[in-house]
Amino acid sequence: MVDLVLVAAVVLMVAAMAGSLLPAVPSGLFSLAGVWVYALFGSDGLGPVALGALTLAAVATVVIDQVGGPIAAKLGGSSNRTVLIAAVVGFVLLFVLGPLGIIVGVVATVIALELADGADIETAARRGVYTAAGVLASSVAQLLLTGSILVAFLLVVFLL
């Protein structure tokens, strides 16, 4: 007999992995939902240590999604003010445009603020490229985390 709760949890976690690469799917939240669907409704419990570790990994995925671009902007030479404003804009646009809002909002904010602060177009564009690279690197990190969550979940469910 098929355990529908297990299937639902795995489907959510696979969707999370896809969401790491697709701009409109919140990967960390899907992983978190998968873990908690199984924890609350599954036939076997996950145990407090596994539940805590999987929850922390999913929350880390959400955080990485939010801060990857702003951190890259800082590493690219943007000011703390620019980084903070870009992070806030990305967070707000997450709710307006989904994860695509983070990418567009953070990169456009960095470029606009750099130009407003007197940077030449080349410097502003370079800092925007650093930011875009950070957003893309955070997608790779999200993919690795969501994949690890899925594998760890399956190990806990089937082997422990």
TrEMBL record:
PANTHER family (UniProt xref): DUF456 DOMAIN-CONTAINING PROTEIN (PTHR39165:SF1), IG HYPOTHETICAL 17883 (PTHR39165)
Protein name, UniProt field: DUF456 domain-containing protein
Signal as UniProt keyword: no
Lineage: superkingdom: Archaea
UniProt-listed InterPro entries: DUF456
Keywords from the named record: Membrane, Transmembrane, Transmembrane helix
Residues annotated as transmembrane: 47-64, 84-113, 133-159
Pfam families listed in its UniProt record: DUF456
